[in-house]
Amino acid sequence: MTTADHIADLYDNDGQKFFDANDIPILETLDQSPACCEAHNEHMLYTFADGSIIVVNESYWDILTKEDGPEGQGLYSSSGDLYVQTISGTIDWCTAE
After folding, report:
1. Rounded to an integer, what distance in angstroms lies between the CA atom of residue 91 and that of residue 24?
2. Are 75 and 84 in contact (CB under 8 A)?
3. What are the φ/ψ torsions at residue 18 (nearest 5 degrees)?
4. Which pLDDT band, with edges at 50, 70 and 90, does 86 fall under?
5. Residue 86: alpha-carbon gap to chain centroid
6. What is residue 41's three-state secondary structure?
7. Smallest Cα–Cα separation from 26: which of 64, 71, 57?
8. Rounded Cα distance, 4 and 51, in Å
9. Residue 36: beta bridge partners?
10. Rounded to whole angstroms, how far apart are CA atoms 13 and 62?
11. Total structural domains in the chain?
C-alpha cells in the first residue's frame, strides 16, 4: 500500500470527503506528511517518497498515478482519466484540468 493509498483510506477513499473520522481535514494531514507539495492554480500536488501522488483542490481530491496510458505519458486519476500530460518527465500544465 502506498502512502497516498493509506491517506485515502483515512478519508474512506472518497474524493469528496475532506474530513476524517476525527474531523481532521485532508489538507492538514497532507501538510503534516513528508510530502513534496507543488501548487498550480487551484491544484495542490502532494508527492510522497514512494512516488504516490494526491491532488487536491476545493472541489475534490484524488490519487494520481504516473503512467504511459491510453492518452500518452501523464498523471492519471484513480478512475483512469488523464489528469495532466507529462513531456519528458515534466508536467505540461497546459493540459491540466
Report:
1. 30
2. yes
3. -105, 0
4. confident
5. 15
6. coil
7. 57
8. 9
9. 47
10. 8
11. 1
d(Cα 88, Cα 18) in Å, to the nearest integer? 33
Q: Which of 31, 35, 68, 28 is nearest to 53 (CA)?
A: 35
* Cα 15 from chain centre: 10
List the grid coordinates of 9. 483510506
Q: How far is CA 45 from the centre of its chain?
A: 6
Question: For 25-46, b where at least 16 C-beta lie within 10 A, e where not — what string?
Answer: ebeebbeeeebeeeeeeebbbb
Task: State the residue range of the domain holding 29.
Answer: 3-95
CA angle 82, 79, 18 (to 5 degrees): 105
24-39 pLDDT, tens digit each = 999 999 999 999 999 8
